[in-house]
Amino acid sequence: MKDLLLLLPRLARMIAGLLIDRGVPRATKLALAAVALYLASPIDLIPDFIPWVGWLDDVVLAAIVVDGLLSYLDRDLLLRYWPGSASSLDVCARAASRIARWVPTRVKRRIFGGGV
Fold it and tell me: How many Å apart are CA 7 and CA 9, to the nearest integer?
């Protein structure tokens, strides 16, 4: 449970590191920058002032990002910037995979892999 509560701060640190890494594809960096802006923005699809439901869009978006990153980037690269342990990344990855299953693979490939 602790790993899940720390997901967003850890994800933010990982995104910051990946954005400056020269080995990350440009399309992935653009997607990460857009996600970072959305998560930091007070304007959401579901307003955050609605208890619990307001955070749903942020959680789903974070899950899609974690699932996509783990699918399309090298795990060692992610672990370089992940501030937790490898096992905590695995826990978050399993949860993210369950949440992000509804996103078509071709969409994630387009976003994170830069291809078709």
Answer: 6
Full-model pTM:
0.74
Could you give the CA distance from residue 24 to residue 87 in angstroms, rounded to a whole number? Answer: 23
Please give the residue that has the higher pLDDT: either 105 or 17. Answer: 17
pLDDT (0 to 100) of residue 86: 92
First to last CA, the chain: 36
Query: Can you give the C-alpha Rg of the chain in angstroms?
Result: 14
Output the pLDDT for position 21.
95
Place of tokens 């976003």: 111
Of 39 and 2, the one with more pLDDT: 39
- Spatial separation of the C-alpha atoms in residues 14 and 64, rounded to whole Å: 14
Enumerate residues 6+ apart whose C-beta is below 8 A from 87.
none
**What distance lies between CA 91 and its chain's CA centroid?**
14
